[in-house]
Amino acid sequence: MSAKLALRQLSSLQQSKEQPKEIVKTIKKKRRQHKKQQNKAQQQHEKQTTTYQQNLEYYKATQTASQASVELMSKLLGQQPPQEDDSDLDFDL
């Protein structure tokens, strides 16, 4: 009986020595994974921000171009009144 008890105690002692090493390995592994996830999330955020900024700049540029086009057409139409042929409406009284 005492031999079995001694083996259990020895086994328990070995496990207790190995367990902190495993815990440290697990903690380090989780830290690395967390850091990778943070880096990936940061890169994705930067990419989305860059894409958003580019889309916003494109939208502003197209809006500006559209507005300029409308203003130009308004000026052109405003400077040239419609050309109507009124010659058939002239009556000699």
From TrEMBL:
Record region (Disordered): 1-50, 73-93
Bias kind Basic residues: ranges: 26-38
Biased segments, Low complexity type: 1-17
Acidic residues composition bias: residue spans: 83-93
UniProt protein name: Uncharacterized protein
